[in-house]
Design brief:
heterotrimer, A mainly alpha, B mainly alpha, C alpha/beta, A: mainly alpha, MetI-like fold, 15 helices, globular, B: mainly alpha, two-stranded antiparallel sheet
Chain lengths: ~300, ~300, ~500
Amino acid sequence: MEVFKRKPKEVDNNAITPFWNVVLNIVIGVFAFTCVFPFLFVIAISFTDEKVLALNGFSLIPEKFSMAAYQFIFNTGDQLFRSFGVTLLVTVLGTLISLFLITTYAYVLSRRSFRYRNFFSFFAFFTMLFSGGMVPNYIVATQFLHLYNTIWALILPIAMNAFFILVMRTFFQTSVPDALIEAAKIDGSGEFRTFLQIVLPISLPGIATIGLFCTLGYWNDWFNALLYIDDASLVPLQAMLMRIQNNMEFVIQNSMQMGSSFEIAATLPTETVRMAMVVLATLPIALAYPFFQKYFVKGLTVGSLKE
Amino acid sequence: MSAFFKSLNKDKVLWFMVLPGTIWFLIFCYLPMFGTIIAFKDFKIHRDGFFASVLNSKWVGLENFNFLFSTEDAYIITRNTILYNVALISLGLVLAVGIAITLNELVNKRMAKVYQTAMFMPYFLSWVIISFFTFSFLSVDKGILNQVIVYFGGDPVSWYGDTRFWPYILIFMGIWKSIGYSSVVYLAAIAGIDKSYYEAAMIDGASKWQQIKFITLPLLKPLMVTLTILAIGGIFRSDFGLFYQIPRDSGVLYSVTNVIDTYIYRSMSTTGNLGMSTAAGLYQSIVGFIMVIVTNSIVKKISKENAIF
Amino acid sequence: MKVKKSLTLALAGTMLFSGLLAGCGSNNNTNAAKETNNSAAAGNSAGSTSELKPYELKMYLIGGPQKDLDLVLKEVNKYTQEKINATLNITMFDWGDYDKKMQVITASGEPYDIAFTSSWTNDFRRNAANGTFLGLNDLLDKYGKETKEVLDPRFLEGTKIKGEIYGVPVNKELGQQWVWRFNKKYVDKYNMDISNIRTLDDLEPLLKTIKENEPADITPLAVPKGFKPFMPFDYVLGDELPIGVYMDSTDGKVVNILETPELATSLDTMRRLYTAGYLRPDVATLEGIDNIKTGKWFADREITQPYAEKGWSRSAGYEIVTSPMHEPYVYTQSAAGSMHAISVTSGDPERAMMFLNLLNTDKYLRNLLNYGIEGTHYKKISENVIEDLPAMQDSYAMPGFTLGNMLLTYLHADDPADKWDAFKKFNDSSKEAPTFGFAFDPTPVKTEVAAINNVTKEFMPALYTGSVDPKTYLPKATKKFKEAGLEKVIAEVQKQLDEWNQTKK
């Protein structure tokens, strides 16, 4: 006879009262719904027939179902897949490089025994506020480093971020007690080994956070592609999207001066295609999100102080 | 000087570890900073390239900064920028921490994860796309909000022509888009807190609220302070899309929606002068910098640990 | 204190570092420039084409990059090598990106030879003021004679800045004329006579008919927020800013348009039309309007060119008819709708001009660049008429009006045979606006211009579309413009205009 074996529900003595649980669930639930709601529309619009959309405006259920938008995009052929591949490569490689640069720098900042930690903190922080502007950055990247039309132009310019460094430093400082590091030192571990084997594992939530932010940063970046890439085989996904959007807006705003431009307007993609692009560009990263999310769950990290 | 070499010797591994990042900063941030000099010049192109252009351009001192101060708009945009930022920073902090703590306390962990993923979604939408949706809500003839109002017997409101509501609308939209992203940091921090602290507190008879007040919040304090100081550095900057796209650049609303960044953008629309735009950026940077130095010093006096430098 | 000391040390170090690298960078540039200068000089003194050294021309064009560009360029280069021993290296930037990319490229001093420029992207006046482009008067006389002959001289006049030409204009429609466009469906339905509709007052009764008899979702006057009622002014700084000269002015006086009776009546009319419900209620927030797509409109406005209705009707899928608002005029910006400039960083400006001359006068080259390769991208129906093949839409759809003399290009089957003659007639009949040829240099009042830009965006769209009551808003706008320094800008414009008028005599 089949007996349904259910794992006994873990009783959490420290849980909040059921009343509060319901109230908070509702509050957060409603808010979470408003966050997702526009996305549902975006998806719905991408499957709607263009003419019907123009006539009747947005509606949650497509009044006239149409795959035209997606067909249009997939007609661009390998460009879409290539862009996707570029974005994937840049994101993975970039995140790894960023995490290396950020964690090493932040670790040094977190070591209270390091004489110059305040100096380097300031050194990093200063760059958050002051920048030479687009043109000098362009010159450094193209004329000095010759990064034009290379994949590195998409990775290096945003590899470091003072904001992430300072957050990471805070994580290191709060999750790794000095006593632990001193203990390791007494045990004969060098700084780098301490870093790798003790500090990093404890700081997993922080690293997951910064890793997530780096991934998002690389995935969404289109500006560097705009500046440094015109080789079609290196254009990342968001840049492709942005390009099309900018074109549409430009032609709309300037059509009167461009004069004989009505031929061009006819070839530009439409609202539905725009939405379809948002779906295609966002879905992969939204799907990757749970991968990072599991690190934010409370209690995942082992309490380290006990010994 | 000898202290320097001593440190080099004693902490040589640390010096090695900090080197890659430092080199990156030098190349990608400090090197291009020479460009800020354009802010003080009347930039003209010289055939021998950028440096020749910079060297040969006339020095005009503070002239490029004038347009930021020349009219009464200067007061309006500054006031708007600061007030919106104060609201966004403070509300953002309270809500981000609040949501992070709440998500952790919800009994059904799977629902919590779903909520959290959902709250992250707005980050992926651009302000242009979001403005389509706010438009479908606020449009005076076909907007959902007005339809509801009329249904209940009221008069339709010309949302894009009435300044009264916009501070609330903009602050709400600003928080709505970024709260998912900001709460992640706090979530991760809470995840790193040792569970045994809570268990011990509970055994001692502490209520949930007391646990939050005496354990969670103090442990989150370093992060809160750091993030707030950093946010203050951006006090003169704004999220351009929020203040330009959402109000659909409606002129009538400028008195409450014009911030420094939108003002700069609109000023440059017919002239596009590199010197002026660089000057504007420099102005925003300097103010933010001073604010951070001041805030950091204050924090240093209260609790040295939490200061940035 | 320690932080301060190490800080100053570090900053000093960085400055030094920057300075060193900067030195390296500029050295490279000057050396390269010197070398190419020499070779150009050598080429020059030789004179005849057979002695020209081979040279690669770097050219930036606007438009979506096309898959078959390299294929077509191979053919192009075969031809140009024969003629002027030069090859072309073309990079295209998309519509929305072009301006920003060119700004960065020119500011960073990257060497190139030719770039597309106009009044609406990569602004030729801004570039000329910045010293980006070479003055072309001499080059045109020496190597561009044939181009000059083909162009309506007003093209060149209109694009002169302080007497020097900075761009080779594309020969196309010269005059600018706004027309009212009508959705023929409704014109026929109510048997309307649109042959004499010129002003808003003429239009009003028609709008009323539509409003009263058609359901609410048919917009009588379907215009977006950029709409401006036609007024008899020549706008000196673009039609956004209220600075202009009367079209029929004989004294060249620059007026503050806000204070003119024409503006007051136009605004009242627009307000009347708006409150009557002839425009969309949210018109002041509409960036663009999709009336063509939905077909739910009666009238709108657009800039025309000969046979434009055919193009519009074709892309809309239903018939559109027009009625002109005014006579065609030649404004400075209509002459600057499409041009090619030569960069100050060009290694061989003479060769660049030779190429442009070829492009604007050689029928084979011009069509090759525009339509691609015969047999691959199009097939010829007759000597001058072609039919696009599917490969063109896929791999080589170039924006014709940006590439050079339009009058040389092949026609399509549904184009009227006399299309280019009609263009010529249109151009010849266009009158010159009073400030035609005058280019204002905003540098002395750049602060005030920036300020009034902001005021313009704050008030003018709402006023021009009738969305707000001019009785309350116009005085507010006037006051704010005054504070922003409108008077000062007007005085400066007058000053420069007077100087320019002197030189004309």
